Amino acid sequence: MDDDASDWARVRAGDSVALAALFDRHEARLFRHACRLLTAREDAKDAVVIAFYELWRKRASVRLVDGSPLPWLLNTVSNSARNLERSSRRYRALIARAPEPRSTQIVTADETGVMAALRRLPAREQSVVVLTILEGYPDREAAQTLGIPVGTVKSRLARARTKLRDAMTTLEAS
């Protein structure tokens, strides 16, 4: 707890690194506490983050117990968990009251355009097109990501462009 006291003095002075040290020290315990109170892991993570955000925001008025903010954090996690659970309950009730959609027709994606042509490419050519053309990564970074040589990226990209160009020409002709 001596570590808490020294870190807390730095947090009060506005040191975010000290807050990170407190987070690293207490996050696991707070997460376990939140998991006992909530059903969704994501909500438990949110409750912990909210508690540390509030600790930072209210650092001038937080009262320590035996030199540690842990009791305050546990209480704040409990309050956040209750709020998250209440919000989730309201959301589920709202969804339950929502009217059923009038149309039972299933809407499917258009399979006649560029995306359909892209989906028809072999997976290794698709991944090169997605990384280089759609996401804008340079050839070298795409090669590192895929674990292949840069030359292979370039040749797959050339083949994919040819296939896509042919598919678009056929589509325009029809």
Short structural summary:
Keywords: DNA-binding, Sigma factor, Transcription, Transcription regulation. The protein is mainly alpha-helical and 174 residues long.
Helices and strands, with pairings:
Elements: H1 2-12, H2 16-37, H3 41-57, H4 70-97, H5 114-120, H6 123-134, H7 139-146, H8 150-173
Report on this model:
By secondary structure, the chain is mainly α. The chain is built from 8 helices and no strands.
Question: What characteristics describe this protein?
Answer:
0% strand, Rna Polymerase Sigma Factor, Chain: A, 174 residues, DNA binding, ECF RNA polymerase sigma factor SigE, DNA-binding, mainly alpha, Arc Repressor Mutant, subunit A, 2 domains
Strand percentage: under 5%
- Low-confidence regions: none
Global geometry:
elongated
**SSE order, one letter for each helix or strand:** HHHHHHHH
| CA(first)-CA(last) distance | 75 Å
Q: State the CATH topology of the largest domain.
A: Rna Polymerase Sigma Factor, Chain: A
Assign a percent range to the helix content: over 70%
The CATH fourth-level homologous superfamily of the largest domain: RNA polymerase sigma factor, region 2, helix turn helix motif
Query: Averaging pLDDT over every residue, what do you get?
Result: 88
* Count of runs of 4 or more consecutive helical residues: 8
DSSP, total strands: 0
Q: What is the makeup of the main sheet?
A: none
Query: What's the number of structural domains?
Result: 2
Give the second-level CATH assignment, the architecture of the largest domain. Orthogonal Bundle
Task: Give the helix/strand class.
Answer: mainly alpha
The CATH class of the largest domain is Mainly Alpha
Q: What Rg is obtained from the alpha carbons, in whole angstroms?
A: 27 Å
